[in-house]
Amino acid sequence: MGVNKKSRKNVWRSELNDLIRGTCGGFLFGTPLLYTMEVWWIGSLAKPQLIMTAIALMFIGVFLLNKTEGFRKRKRRKRPYEAVIDTVEAIAIGLACSSFVLFILQELTIETPLKEALGKVIFESVPFTLGVALANQFLGDTEGDNNAKAESKKLKSELSATLADLGATVIGATVIAFNIAPTDEIPMLAATISPLWQLAIIATSLIISYGIVFQAGFSDQQKRREQKGIFQRPSGETIISYLISLLAAAIMLWFFQKLTLSDPWTMWLDHTLMLGLPATIGGAAGRLAI
């Protein structure tokens, strides 16, 4: 009886980890396109035939990706029906993620017409869903490749390990957010958010960052937990990396003259928090790479 209970518990834990891995992969690949107003417009004006075509093409592409890898960790080769199930789940995750972020960005509200909301979600979910299907292929556990890295990290001091993580956070944040920073989407979105939504964006950024680095099972997650450094506890590393990502976001906004030193601090805050979400996701991806 106890063995069966433990087995069921392991199955549910494995299922939860698979879903978290797929969700984090979706955020890594799909977030930049969510800050593109042209996609919002195309989605809101799309006709039902175009929406159905997008769903069909997305299903075919994700099915082919799931035949090779997907977001689940299976030791044996996938059967065709399992690839179909994984494809449906990947699309569901993509739809849920894109809906959630569009809601956080206030591009979807209670007043949004159903047809417009459906078009936006479908079109924005395409990169999310592809990210879910590619989660293992590009971000899977690379324990064998990381053995040499792990040995070299043992020789580093805590300060060196911390600086390496901070540097990787800045690089990752810049790679993801640099193309978003000069666009008009950031000031447009920042103008619509209230203090309550700012707190929601902060919480979302921290949760996604923690999930990518410490929960999704990417890039030898256990060694990430054991890595030495001044802020190397999962919670401490997540918070410090988020602050570094916000700093990088603020510098990018200043660099592209979206913010100036004469602007009020409230404007700096809402713009930085808005760009901080993709910057934080990029920073988490950067930390996975070292």
Report what the structure shows.
The protein is mostly helical. The chain has 13 helices and no strands. The chain has helices at residues 2-34, 37-45, 48-68, 80-104, 114-133, 135-139, 143-154, 158-177, 185-190, 195-215, 221-226, 234-255, 265-288. The termini are far apart. Mean pLDDT is 79; it is low at 142-146 and 148-155.
Can you tag this structure with a few keywords?
globular, mainly alpha, 290 residues, single chain
Oligomer: single chain
Distance between the termini: 43 Å
Q: How many DSSP-defined strands?
A: 0
Please give the radius of gyration in angstroms: 20 Å
Q: How many helices does DSSP assign?
A: 13
Tell me the helix content: over 70%
Strand content: under 5%
SSE pattern: HHHHHHHHHHHHH
Q: Could you report the average pLDDT, rounded to the nearest whole number? A: 79
| Unreliable parts | 142-146, 148-155
Anisotropy-based shape: globular
- Give me the secondary-structure category: mainly alpha
Query: What does the main sheet amount to?
Result: none
Please sum up the structure shown.
The protein is mainly alpha-helical and 290 residues long. Helix content is 77%, strand content 0%.
